[in-house]
Amino acid sequence: MSMKEIRRFTAVQLAERIKQREISVKEAVQAALEQINEVETAIHSYVTIEEEGAMRQAEEVQKKIDSGELSGPLAGVPAAIKDNMCTEGLLTTCSSRILGNFVPTYTAEAVLNLQKAGAVILGKTNMDEFAMGSTTETSAFGITRNPWNLSHVPGGSSGGSCAAVAAQECFYALGSDTGGSIRQPSAFCGVTGLKPTYGTVSRYGLIAYGSSLDQIGPVAKDVTDCAAVLEAAASYDKKDSTSLKRQDTDFTSALGKDVKGMKIGIPRDYLGEGLEEDVRSAVLLAAKTLEGQGAMVEEFDLSLVEYAIPAYYVIACAEASSNLARFDGVKYGYRSKEYEGLHHMYKKSRSEGFGPEVKRRIMLGSFVLSSGYYDAYYLKALRTKALIKQAFDQAFAEYDVILGPAAPSTAPEIGKSLSDPLKMYLGDIYTVSVNLAGLPGITVPCGLDKKGLPIGLQLIGDCFQEKKIIQAAYAFEQARKMEVSPIAEDGASVIAGWEKSQTAEGGKEQEERA
């Protein structure tokens, strides 16, 4: 079987063929590495690629499969890990200069769970620095490009993971979601991404941004893969004080069930001002598709939507300012070469090590936690968070699933978001409420806009109701089969497109200089 044919498989399909001995684990890894070598120059999905380590893992996993020790639905499948999850002996940077030399001595629990299921780790994917951003442009190691159009962003902060799956540089990936960081880039890259209920996947080993909001989840080619990966990654972990003991993590059992009688609500607030017409049309068509399969779909009012963005950024930045205080140049990571005394070393190391977006959020977080402003901003944001949770509770008393867009637009062009941070923050309008309320959400591709860029449909469930959103997402996916990868199989058009974009950018720079 050719490398091109191997790359077409989903993760579950590939594992089945490995089990049937039609493909070896080594061949699967070689297929992914070949694509990485072909297109990575243009896309830059990875910060660290572990070629030798992946081949060693392939041999070990193959032995376990042959002996019958490994027989699960993901055994032998090559995967990528977002670079904010610790991996023993493998560089973990959070795409920040301040952690540019950090090699952990332990592995994140979610990654360990995947390795126990037979995953082969190909490397660590690029991201917005410390997961702070919506475009994967704030990385200290360079931007990631959207495989559908190289002049556009892949979204963020898990843009590297989503671009890698879309570009066939891995078969699935792990991302983290603080305010939509799995769901929004999945929508922009035309792949499927799932954010589980808070506490379902252990946060042990995940380098924290906002501890009360962060949650690890899968990015994959389809809903079946996402369900299988989440099933493997989820577990109770006593090392994580927010980890939940759940007995209902057999998420793949929801696949194949129809949606007859399912009640689906569409918030009118999600279809108002600021939503691009192409996105609105695709989302409403998706609702019609589910309605045609027997679901009951209606619009309703979801209150407090306009307060979600300010509440989210106050809470997230407050927690970030506290979490990032540990990066001081003393214990690990970057330390300034020239300084006078301890306090000067702190200031210089942090000033030189952190990028502008991270500094902006640390300062905002420190401000809202400061004396005189704590009550006015932080406590008010926490009260708003509680009210948003109540609004969702009321909605889920009526509906099984909430349907809406994942983002108000498709992927913007590179360079256009960072110039206006407030506009970039407002792009999270449909995703942040899910994190504030600790709910599960999934994004699936539902169409293309006039520019040929993917549009994502978001399905939101009540706490612990991942199976309902998986059931609805799978039903929609089966009704409207879509091409999941934009990459030409030989990668040649990607390189050609990248070279063309580089030439165009060079021409623009020359004009500006003139």
Summarize the structure in words.
The chain is an alpha/beta fold. It has a domain at 45-50 and 77-305 and 386-486: Alpha-Beta Complex (Amidase signature (AS) enzymes). Helices cover 42% and strands 12% of the residues. It has 17 helices and eleven strands. An eleven-stranded mixed sheet has the order 1-3-2-4-6-5-10-11-9-7-8, sandwiched between helices. A hairpin with a 5-residue loop joins strand 10 and strand 11. The chain is globular and about 65 Å long. The model is unreliable at 509-514 (pLDDT under 50).
Q: Enumerate how many helices there are, as a single number.
A: 17
Silhouette: globular
Integer average pLDDT: 93
Structural class: alpha/beta
Largest sheet: 11 strands, mixed
Percent range for helical residues?
40-55%
CATH topology of the domain at 45-50 and 77-305 and 386-486: Amidase signature (AS) enzymes
Q: What name goes with the CATH superfamily of the domain at 45-50 and 77-305 and 386-486? A: Amidase signature (AS) domain
CATH class bucket of the domain at 45-50 and 77-305 and 386-486:
Alpha Beta
Placed side by side, the strands forming the largest sheet appear as 1-3-2-4-6-5-10-11-9-7-8
Write the layout of secondary structure elements.
Elements: H1 3-8, H2 11-19, H3 25-43, E1 46-49, H4 51-67, E2 78-82, H5 109-116, E3 120-125, H6 159-166, E4 172-177, H7 183-189, E5 192-195, E6 215-220, H8 223-233, E7 263-267, H9 277-292, E8 296-300, H10 305-323, H11 342-353, H12 356-369, H13 374-396, E9 401-405, H14 421-426, H15 432-436, E10 441-448, E11 454-461, H16 466-479, H17 492-513
Parallel strand pairs: 2-3, 2-4, 7-8, 7-9
Antiparallel strand pairs: 1-3, 4-6, 5-6, 5-10, 9-11, 10-11
Helix pairs in contact: 3-4, 3-17, 10-12, 10-13
